[in-house]
Design a protein that fits this description.
heterodimer; A: mainly beta; seven-stranded mixed sheet; four-stranded antiparallel sheet; B: mainly beta; five-stranded antiparallel sheet; 11 strands; globular
Chain lengths: 115, 109
C-alpha cells in the first residue's frame, strides 16, 4: 500500500481483556517498529523487527506485551490482560533500510483505551 | 536525565516570524537526528533529518546540529498558522530511535 496501515483505529477494552493491534507496513520495507505514545509525551520504543526477526524487544513494558511478524510483512502487537496504564496510542513505523535509518514512516496509530 | 530533552512549550510566535525549536541529547554516539511534526490526533511525519555538523536547509526549514554540544535545533522561517503543531526531536543510534516529549508550537495570525 501507499502508507503504513494500522487497525483498528480505536479500541476500547475492558480491564483484563486481551487485544491485538495490526500493522501493515509499506510494501518492501524491511524494518518495522512499534512505539507507545502516552498523552503529551513523545513516542516510546517498544520493539523492532528486521524482516521476520525480532531484533530488539527491550522496550516492551511487561511480559503481557507480545509482538510478531511471521512472514516479514504484517505485524501484530498483542497485549494480554490489559491494564489502565496500557491506555495510549500505539504507533507502527516502517523503514526501507535496515541498519542506518533515514527516518521512519508512521502509521495513523491505534488509540487504545482500557476501562 | 532524559535521553532527549525538549522544552515542552507552548512556544507562541506571530505569523511571519522565525520559530526556533531546540533539543539536547545525552548519547554522544548518536548518529543521526530527525525532526517530526505531529498535529493533534495525528501520527508524526518526518520533516527534516541531519547527520553532519552544521546547517541543513529545506524550504522554510533549517536544521542545525552541533555534536560537540549535543544540540540540535529546527528553525522555521516565515511561520504560518498551519505550522502550529507539536515538533518531536528524535535521535538515532544502532536501530534505536529515541524521541523527545515534543515542543508545542502555536503560530498566531
Amino acid at each position: 500500500g501507499a502508507g503504513v496501515s494500522q487497525s483498528p483505529r480505536y479500541k476500547v477494552a475492558k480491564r483484563g481483556q486481551d487485544v491485538a493491534l495490526r500493522c501493515d507496513p509499506i510494501s518492501g520495507h524491511v524494518s518495522l517498529f512499534w512505539y507507545q505514545q502516552a498523552l503529551g509525551q513523545g513516542p516510546e520504543f517498544l520493539t523492532y523487527f528486521q524482516n521476520e526477526a525480532q531484533l530488539d524487544k527491550s522496550g516492551l513494558p511487561s511480559d503481557r506485551f507480545f509482538a510478531e511478524r511471521p512472514e516479514g510483512s504484517v505485524s501484530t502487537l498483542k497485549i494480554q490482560r490489559t491494564q489502565q496504564e496500557d491506555s495510549a496510542v500505539y504507533l507502527c513505523a516502517s523503514s526501507l533500510y535496515e541498519g542506518l535509518s533515514y527516518g521512519y514512516t508512521f502509521g495513523s496509530g491505534t488509540r487504545l483505551t482500557v476501562v | 536525565q532524559k535521553e532527549v530533552e525538549q522544552n515542552s512549550g507552548p512556544l507562541s510566535v506571530p505569523e511571519g516570524a522565525i520559530a526556533s525549536l531546540n533539543c539536547t541529547y545525552s548519547d554522544r554516539g548518536s548518529q543521526s537526528f530527525f525532526w517530526y511534526r505531529q498535529y493533534s490526533g495525528k501520527s508524526p511525519e518526518l520533516i527534516m533529518f541531519i547527520y553532519s555538523n552544521g546547517d541543513k536547509e529545506d524550504g522554510r526549514f533549517t536544521a542545525q546540529l552541533n555534536k560537540a554540544s549535543q544540540y540540535v535545533s529546527l528553525l522555521i522561517r516565515d511561520s504560518q498558522p498551519s505550522d502550529s503543531a507539536t515538533y518531536l526531536c528524535a535521535v538515532y543510534n544502532n536501530n534505536d530511535m529515541r524521541f523527545g516529549a515534543g515542543t508545542r508550537l502555536t503560530v498566531k495570525p
